[in-house]
Structure formats: C-alpha cells, structure tokens
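Predict structure. Chain length: 161.
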Amino acid sequence: MRENGWDKLFVNVVSFCKKHGIEIPDLNDWHSTTRFRRSRLEENQVTIKHYFRVEFFFTTIDKQLQELNSRFSEQAMDLMTLSCSLSHEDGYKAFDVDTICTLVQKYYPMDFCDHEKVKLPFDFRHFLFDARQLSTFKNLSTIQELCSCLASTGQKKIILD
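Prediction complete.
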C-alpha cells in the first residue's frame, strides 16, 4: 500500500472532488512544515502533495499496521501470511507449493501422515498445472468455489489419494 496505494487513492480523490465541485488547491504549491511564514525557513518547506502523502497517507498506513500488529499474535500473522499462498487469483500466481507445505508442517502436522506430507508437493504441482490449464478453474473467486470445483471435477481425489 505504501508503494502503490497513493497514486490510486490520489486519482480517486481528484475524481471525487471534480465530480462534487470541490476546489483542488495547487498541490505543487509550498506547504510550510513550521509555524513560521515561507520567508523565514524555506528549507523546511515541502509541496502540499508531499505533505499529504507523507504526513497523512503514510502516517495512517503506519498506524493501521501498528494496530493490526498489536491485535494479532505473531503466530496468527504467520498463519495469515502463509494462507495467502492458497490464493487462486490471477491464474494461481500466488499459489506457492513450498509455502503450502510449510503451512502443513507448521500448523497441520497431525492432519497428514508422513507419506502424505512427502507426496503433497508433487500433488500440488500436478494440481497447479491442471488448474492453470482447465477453464473450470479460471473464474473462481472464493476458496469455497475452489473446493466445490475440486469435488465436481474429481481433482480432490488426485490430491487426497
């Protein structure tokens, strides 16, 4: 969000302002970061656009991250991060077999026997190849839809056997 979010937000804000007749200041004008007038401390001045990006946008993101980090344990954050590798969006771009296997080892070791743990990377690579090729796996939007599709196509048998 820090890297790519500002531009999208800025375009949306400008569009909103234009749509509702809200005046947009010249964002390339100077904004003094001190309580003195411009003539006193020119070196402490930044553009209005920079001021809003750094002082508001980045600060808000940092505060939200700090709040999220304080609400969830390190283990819960790790589980959520690893679970992102199950995403089927963008042609299974984030679907990472090694990360899924790490997820199994760390959080679900009792749910899989040793044989299944050894076989799992091969099964997931096979599934990933099929999922990227078959049209039935292309337009899924939830994990529930993915599971239903696995069941209806017989793919779950390949993974679970």
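Summary: The first strand starts at residue 30 and ends at 32.
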